[in-house]
Design a protein that fits this description.
By secondary structure, the protein is mainly alpha-helical. The protein has seven helices and two strands; from the N terminus they run ααααββααα. The chain is 53% helix and 2% strand. A two-stranded antiparallel ribbon has the order 1-2. Helix 5 packs across helix 6 and helix 6 crosses helix 7.
Length: 221
């Protein structure tokens, strides 16, 4: 009989998730370091978003970790890494407006710094708070250990958007891609279509970046 794999303890799982988020965020930062200022004005596949707006949104997504952790909630969580994504789209209808506002007045240098500084602040939070700490979020109270995979999805998927805009290979860092696939497969609630065995292809179809005939897709946008 095969022994079942014991899931990691919450604190260890949270540290693993933070390492995955840090690796992907740092990889995007390294990509941006190689690009001229003119590249920041390139359009992305997100309507109305330039590279500048996209990077402002990514940096803002990472900043939510220390921002929310600054005011822990003394209540049980209402969301987890899957139910976080199940919501009425009108709840977060202002995402594009917020991204455009976040990019206003920014420069390539200021946004590169924001990525580094927001990641450092997130790492500090994860180093000192228990994984079971409940934090507020736009979708409701959620434990830190459950919120980090949501941030990984954001950075991984938008990292694909960024790589696409900059004509870079669509190759997320392995741990971030694996975590994102796990979340999206959980939302799919069943096996992925056989023609989406490639993880990047699955992520892109599951998030509406490429069309697919399976009526379950996309699971998030």
């Amino acid at each position: 009989m095969q022994s079942q794999r014991t899931p990691p303890e919450p604190d260890a799982e949270m540290r693993q998730a933070m390492a995955a988020l840090a690796a992907e965020t740092s990889a995007l930062g390294a990509l941006l370091e190689t690009r001229a200022d003119a590249d920041w004005e390139r359009p992305t596949r997100l309507p109305g978003w330039s590279v500048m707006v996209l990077v402002a949104h990514i940096a803002g997504g990472v900043s939510r970790i220390p921002q929310y952790a600054a005011t822990p909630v003394d209540a049980p969580p209402e969301r987890d890494r899957l139910t976080y994504w199940r919501f009425d789209a009108s709840v977060d209808a202002g995402v594009s407006t917020r991204a455009l506002d976040a990019a206003r007045g920014q420069t390539p240098d200021s946004l590169r710094a924001a990525l580094r500084n927001n990641l450092a602040a997130a790492r500090d939070v994860i180093a000192r708070l228990p994984a079971t700490t409940v934090i507020p979020s736009i979708m409701g109270p959620i434990a830190l250990v459950e919120y980090l995979p949501c941030r990984i999805v954001e950075v991984c998927v938008h990292g694909l958007d960024l790589r696409d805009a900059l004509d870079a290979p669509l190759t997320p860092t392995p741990a971030a891609l694996a975590s994102t696939v796990s979340t999206l497969e959980g939302l799919l609630a069943g096996p992925r279509p056989p023609d989406l065995s490639d993880d990047v292809a699955f992520v892109e179809a599951a998030t509406g970046r490429r069309p697919h005939a399976d009526p379950r897709l996309p699971v998030i946008r």
